[in-house]
Amino acid sequence: MLKIAVIGANGKSGRLIVAEALRRGYDVTAVVRSENQSEARNVLVKDVMALTKEDLSPFDVVVDALGFWTAETIPLHITTAEHLCDLLSGTGKRFYVVGGAGSLWLDPQHTRQVVDEPSFPKEYFPLADAQRRQVAAVKARSDVLWTYVSPAAAFLPDAPATGKYVLGSDDFSVNANGESMVSYADYALAMVDLIANGGHAHEQVSVRS
Fold first, then answer.
1. What is the dihedral of CA 87, 89, 92, 97, to 10 degrees?
2. NAD(P)-binding domain: from which residue to which, for each copy (predicted)?
3. Which pLDDT score, from 0 to 100, does residue 45 have?
């Protein structure tokens, strides 16, 4: 049975990933800074930057579901991902990151990302730019079995689960209606499918409806 640690299990995506992994019978531990709000019965209360190699040693899979939203904390997307990579370096454990859509590529030459578009909402730029730097930092690590999982541009917390999704590459894509969207629930389904199936090491993938 896979042993999975979900760091940031109290967040919206983290809680759904925990629930989906538990539904499939996996051994799941919620790693949280405060009282656990997920369905996990196994809980480690500890700040991510205080985690050690020993803390993560029992797990086969580590999921980074952390989210930082204020001007002061947004840079922690990079800092925490680098810290987790350092802890997992050379261990052979699989590392999955809940990412953003801003880093997806818009052209075949991979010179323009979604966040570079003039129409990109200015209020979301700091977060998207931090996540772009986050994925660049993760992609630089050949010593970690990472997979960076970007949602669609419209990442919808309250949309219903459909049980369907399209798994893509690190290129931006849209559905038949020209839309880029996915519910948190369908994203969680895709994330646990990725964990269950393995593969996609050292790849950024995307999930949309």
1. 70
2. 8-197
3. 98
Structural domain count, the chain: 1
Query: Which CATH number belongs to the domain containing residue 48 in this structure?
Result: 3.40.50.720
- Residue 98's φ and ψ, nearest 5 degrees, are -80, 110
pLDDT in tens, 116-163: 999 999 999 999 999 999 999 999 999 999 999 999 999 999 999 999
N residues, the chain: 209
**DSSP for 31-42, written as a single string:** EESSS--SS-SE
CA 54 to CA 142: how far, in whole Å? 21
Full residue range of the structural domain in which residue 117 is found: 3-208
pLDDT band per the 50, 70, 90 thresholds, residue 78: very high
Classify residue 2 by its DSSP letter: -
How far apart (Å, rounded) are the C-alpha atoms in residues 36 and 43?
Answer: 7
In which residue are the tokens 């967040």 written?
A: 11
Is residue 65 helix, strand or coil? coil
Tell which residue, 48, 75, 69, 49, has the closest CA to residue 130. Answer: 75
Under 8 Å between Cβ of 150 and 205: yes
- Nearest-angstrom CA–CA distance, 193 and 149: 12
Tokens 């660049």 — which residue?
A: 136
